[in-house]
Specification:
This protein is α+β, with helices and mostly antiparallel strands. The chain has six helices and four strands; from the N terminus they run H-H-H-H-H-E-H-E-E-E. The protein has two domains: about 100 residues, no CATH class; about 70 residues, no CATH class.
Length: about 200
């Protein structure tokens, strides 16, 4: 017959687990926990790990329950919008698409997003470029998207977002035929319109 959850031995074991975890949280080593509880170091380690595993399983179950509830809520919203969306109600279509995106994220259906700092083709890393090469690349990209001003300047926001602004807020000029020159007095990155 299984031992009762309220048996003296099980109650003592739970109290020992609680005390061991509290000591560990307070920064005690496994040797200190073992001395305090009058047990071996290995036993102290096993007790703490057992409690942590149990808490981890409970947390995982809780997260799965929250995910299930969220999916149920999204499904209810979807059902409420579906007829209007398929009949061409554009705001309902927009909301339905947002519900689909959220559902896909919750279920992990979306492909990972590339975040490596590489050129658009993924062939080479921007991290390997010198400051001058990076400034040229920013200018090239700015021209490609039409973000270069009439005087050939690239807005500071585009340049600094790409990580090319020198420390201290300084800016670079690119109109010099000898190559880029770093300076502290410009309001924008200046690029030569004929340059690639």
């Amino acid at each position: 017959m299984p031992e009762s959850k309220t048996s003296a031995r099980r109650v003592l074991a739970r109290e020992r687990e609680r005390e061991a975890v509290q000591l560990r949280i307070a920064g005690a080593s496994y040797d200190e926990i073992a001395r305090h509880l009058g047990i071996r170091r290995g036993s102290a380690h096993r007790i703490v790990q057992r409690v942590l595993a149990r808490l981890s399983a409970q947390t995982g179950e809780l997260a799965e329950e929250v995910r299930r509830l969220e999916l149920e809520r999204l499904d209810a919203l979807w059902r409420a919008l579906y007829e209007r969306a398929v009949n061409g109600d554009l705001p309902a279509v927009d909301r339905a698409l947002h519900i689909m995106e959220r559902r896909a994220r919750l279920l992990g259906l979306d492909a990972p997003t590339k975040v490596a700092p590489t050129d658009p083709t993924g062939e080479y890393s921007y991290a390997e470029l010198s400051d001058e090469e990076l400034i040229r690349e920013i200018a090239k990209l700015a021209r490609a998207i039409g973000a270069v001003g009439a005087g050939g300047e690239v807005p500071l926001v585009a340049a600094s977002a790409a990580g090319a602004a020198p420390a201290g807020g300084g800016l670079a000029r690119m109109a010099d035929p000898g190559g880029p020159r770093l300076g502290q007095d410009a309001d924008n990155y200046r690029v030569d319109a004929e340059r690639d």
